Amino acid sequence: MISSAKPTYITFIVDKLNNGIVDPKHIVSEFCIKFQKTERTFWNQWKIAKLKWETLHEAKEKLKEDAILQNDLNLFKSGLKSKEERQLQLQNKINELDEILLKGTTPDTIFDNKAMISVDVIRNLTAIERANLMKVQREITAELNKMGGDYAPAKSEVKVVGEQPLFN
Fold it and tell me: What is the pTM of this model?
């Protein structure tokens, strides 16, 4: 079957398929007129050309999908931070909390519903706010210590000399 296929016939049909004409009814008459061949010749060439086009089309789609996946992967990687960057970010948060706790004040807004106005003020931290800030600071410090490996278990080599019973 393939040995009787002429490349010009196949190329003609594949070009039509690439142009979006996928219904053979719309190609057969033009094929028969252009090449002075019968419909039977067209249908034989159609089978071969259709397989070739599907193979090429699948390869193109695979390349598009791979390009999209690679682009998504690059975007994902660019959003990731290194261990040192994350540690620096956590340390900056700890420093900000230290400043707030040392100042002992926080900005606040007071609303007056009757007069329909708001006033920005700086007030002292309440005991609960101070306790919550200290708790957050401890949690961030613990996370920073974990990232640094401070809580890694100590490994030591154990040698067993002789056989000793586990239970007496």
Answer: 0.44
The whole domain housing 128 covers 83-148
> How many independent structural domains does the chain possess?
2
d(CA 57, CA 55): 5
The identity of residue 63, as a single letter, is L
Task: Tell me the two tokens of residue 159.
Answer: 């040698």
Considering the domain architecture, whether residues 33 and 11 belong to the same structural domain is answered as yes
Whole-angstrom distance, CA of residue 158 vs CA of residue 151? 21
pLDDT tens per residue, range 1-33: 444 557 888 899 889 888 888 888 888 888 888
3-state secondary structure of 7: helix
Per residue in 28-60, pLDDT (tens digit) is 888 888 888 888 988 989 999 989 999 988 998
For the CA atoms of 119, 125, 128, 129, what is the dihedral angle to 10 degrees? 80
Per residue in 144-155, is it b (16+ CB within 10 Å) or e — as a string? beeeeeeeeeee
CB 87 within 8 Å of CB 147: yes
Give the whole-angstrom CA distance, residue 46 versus residue 119: 80
In a domain, 156, yes or no: no
CB-based contacts of 12: which residues, under 8 Å, 6+ apart? 31, 34, 35
